[in-house]
Amino acid sequence: MRRPAAARPISADRFANDPRELPASDKAANQAKGSRTPDRWKPPRRAYRCEHARCRTGVKSLYGLTVTPPEKSVPTAMLTECG
Fold it and tell me: By CB count within 10 A, which of 28, 30, 40, 55 is most buried?
């Protein structure tokens, strides 16, 4: 019997090479973000925040990653502003 996709173990290589995890950014933006979680960093360009929030929530869901309440609240708030 096959397990549901969400129950499959995460592949570190698959996750690390997922293009959603590797967005193009300039050096300053990349350094500003560092390893900050969504509740501690937002893209400086407001126009990109919707795409960023959708990407983050999609990746967390796809790989079955845990989400803390603060990590969930900020992207959720950003998505409500997207319309």
Answer: 55
Greater model confidence, 71 or 21: 71
Phi, psi of 78 (to 5 degrees): -65, -40
Is the dihedral angle over the CA atoms 21, 58, 36, 44 positive or is it negative? positive
What does residue 69 show for φ and ψ, rounded to 5 degrees? -55, -45
Domain boundaries, the chain: 37-63
**Angle subtended at Cα 6 by Cα 4 and Cα 9, rounded to the nearest 5 degrees:** 100
Tens-place pLDDT, residues 7-45: 455 666 777 777 777 676 778 877 887 778 878 888 888
Contact 74, 81 (CB under 8 A): no
Radius of gyration of the chain measured on its C-alpha atoms? 14
